[in-house]
């Protein structure tokens, strides 16, 4: 075995990409289980407990059911777009995991292997670009259904996402002014130890968090699929695994935005006192990965906790919050950050 | 007017203060409430494995009693059917023949006695109407089934067994 370095690099990256892909899918699958369990606990219930011990096989049963359900494609729909809609939603949801730094670097056979598929120097921009593509899946799916409820849901989704992407971007600009880089790998390295960005950007984080809820279409911003008004919103006409894809994409988005928030504001795989423990680099990396996933799970729990606490906004309230409060606050945050940078430099 | 529960609040449409309008303190408060419920014991009863405890005088599935010699007490007088507000009970009376004294206590008995469990509202008026202390409601539940016909319970399901072990104790409902 005498492989050149390029081949080794390719193998590393392929393995990391596949593992990241598998973990994303696994976590999205079990998020559905976690959602039901957490909902149950918050409402003094037990939740699914029949499939396997503690209902642990419930996601598999759900998936099996999705596959066996009758597949209905409405006669009046645009069939090609109707089928491709959930595919786009799923694809864009999965693409973002490429730039997230899952851990530090492992040392195997004298080589440093960073646990990140690719450290783009515009990582933040890449995530933004792909996330904004996500609305196309919903938009196309909703429009192709040829149903007024679906169309209304899709319109709501797109206008909501565009409104909140603005303040999300503005909240991030303050962070990027502070860190001076768009590469996620570098942003995490700057937060080494307990030096997390949340302590410097509390307002920015709060704005980003609210926008992340809006971007993921989670309660209290789940107007695109608001069942009291729109039957099922953009996925009214969907059935079988295509509906499953839409729901799955939502959970993947939730996972990715949790990872993104943990990376940007909570130090990613960094944990306090990591340099004073005296452990070898590989151990630090492994613990770092676990800590990172712990942070992600905490965020996912928070997403679900909010969902089962708050009611949905009215649409005018949503727009007023987005344009009249979030954007001015984000601009104020940029101003404050800029002033502090100017004064301290 | 004084409120009965002491929990009523006066509602007004005053403008919100800045703190209330900021929404976030209210969100945090709400999160606190749901988190409190997260650690509370679930109210669920895992039904087939666990069953809720019934009171001693629960009004469940009916039983047609036998007397101490094992003869059916029912004389098919029809008072239960008349008293039944849901009209769930029907019966066909027959005359006791010689040699059937150990089966039926009186000279007349119910050849067919049917209760439609889908109509029954378990009010217990049949039990109150019965002059012979023949019908009682028990702690047992009429189980679920797949067909409507299965819910019309005949004498095979209603009459208690002859053996002492199969007798159903209804003393709690008698003592009431």
CATH class of the domain at 62-175 in chain B: Alpha Beta
**What is the average per-residue confidence, as pLDDT of chain A, rounded to a whole number?**
85
Q: Outline of chain A, from the CA principal axes?
A: globular
**Secondary-structure-derived class of chain B:** alpha+beta
- The beta-strand count of chain B equals 5
Using only C-alpha atoms, the radius of gyration of chain B works out to 27 Å
Named at the architecture level, the CATH assignment of the domain at 62-175 in chain B is: 2-Layer Sandwich
Strand content of chain A: under 5%
- How many whole angstroms does the radius of gyration of chain A measure? 21 Å
Largest chain-chain contact? A-B, 14 and 14 residues
Order of helices and strands of chain B: HHEHEEHEEHH
Oligomeric state? heterodimer
Strand residues, percent of chain B: 5-15%
Count of extended strands of chain A: 2
Distance between the termini of chain A: 53 Å
> Could you say which structural class the secondary elements and strand pairing of chain A correspond to?
mainly alpha
Major beta sheet summary of chain B = 3 strands, antiparallel
Gap from first CA to last CA of chain B: 40 Å
Unreliable runs of chain B, pLDDT <50, ≥5 residues? none
The structural domain count of chain A equals 1
Describe this structure in words.
The complex is a heterodimer of chains A (345) and B (176). Chain A is an all-alpha fold. Chain A has helices at residues 5-42, 58-68, 79-95, 123-144, 148-179, 184-190, 202-215, 227-230, 240-265, 281-307, 315-344; strands spanning 105-108, 111-114. In chain A, strands 1-2 form a two-stranded antiparallel ribbon. In chain A, helix 1 packs across helix 9 (240-265) and helix 3 runs parallel beside helix 9 (240-265). Chain B has a domain at 62-175: Alpha-Beta Plaits (2-Layer Sandwich), CATH 3.30.70.3270. Chain B is built from six helices and five strands, in the order H-H-E-H-E-E-H-E-E-H-H. The model of chain B has no long low-confidence stretch (mean pLDDT 87). The A-B interface holds A 38, 40-46, 49, 305-306, 308-310 and B 27, 30-31, 33-35, 37-38, 40-44, 46.
